Automatic annotation (TrEMBL):
Specifically methylates the uridine in position 2552 of 23S rRNA at the 2'-O position of the ribose in the fully assembled 50S ribosomal subunit. The gene is rlmE. The active site is at K151 (proton acceptor). It comes from Desulfacinum infernum. Belongs to the class I-like SAM-binding methyltransferase superfamily. RNA methyltransferase RlmE family. GO terms for molecular function: rRNA (uridine-2'-O-)-methyltransferase activity. This is Ribosomal RNA large subunit methyltransferase E.
Length: 199
């Protein structure tokens, strides 16, 4: 019997040697919006097991950089232009470290998700906190003109958060990739052209 989560994208990921089916969500957005480009510096928040890094490090190439951050270790071997950090996104020292050692970034991605409890409102509230933190990090480490893409489970704070994103970026879209399960409340906020810290 096929496990309900072992859908088309799951099998495709196995066949194409991707670490997670999540890669197809980013691939779809990338194909449509050309978010990441050759030579870019990319920050990937909630990066484990590493399928988004697999895709982005090939796009940016050896002159670019991909920094992946996750609570969990990323054990997959990557080339030298990939750096992985095992850290909590809420760690106070993280922004300073990212900005001083690796920034400014052209693109900040976040596929972070809380451990789900099954209680929809609680899961959405925790996802919104992760989204908000990703936005705070992006605001500190993105270059003006840079882009931000982050997952969120829509809950009560969604519209307030979206309004915040719209203040900081010139072009904002809410996207639901085909590879995102229909029954899931997750969506992605795609924000392009960061106005810069002082706007
Ligand atoms: C859906 S997975 C990411 C999959 C990844 N994009 C890929 O393609 O392999 C979500 C990740 O968010 C991470 N995460 C959740 N809370 C976090 C936090 N506070 N700090 C850092 N990472 C976190 C989880 O550990 C988990 O690995």
């Amino acid at each position: 019997m096929t496990h309900p989560y072992q859908d088309h994208y799951f099998h495709r990921a196995k066949k194409e040697h991707y670490l997670a089916r999540a890669v197809y969500k980013l691939e779809e957005i990338q194909n449509k919006h050309r978010l990441v480009r050759r030579g870019n510096r990319v920050l990937d928040l909630g990066a484990a097991p590493g399928s988004w890094i697999q895709l982005t490090h090939r796009i940016v190439g050896p002159k670019g950089l991909v920094v992946g951050v996750d609570l969990h270790p990323i054990t997959h071997p990557f080339p030298d232009h990939v750096v992985t950090l095992q850290q909590d996104i809420f760690d106070e020292a993280l922004i300073g470290l990212l900005a001083s050692q690796y920034g400014p970034f052209d693109v900040v991605l976040s596929d972070m998700a809380p451990k789900t409890s099954g209680v929809k409102t609680a899961d959405a509230a925790r996802s919104e906190l992760l989204f908000e933190r990703a936005l705070d990090v992006a605001a500190e480490v993105l270059r003006p003109g840079g882009h931000f893409l982050a997952k969120i489970f829509q809950g009560d704070a969604f519209h307030t958060l979206l309004a915040r994103v719209k203040k900081s970026f010139r072009r904002v879209k809410v996207v639901k990739p085909d590879a995102s399960r229909k029954q899931s409340r997750e969506i992605y906020v795609l924000a392009m052209e960061f106005k810069g810290k002082n706007d």
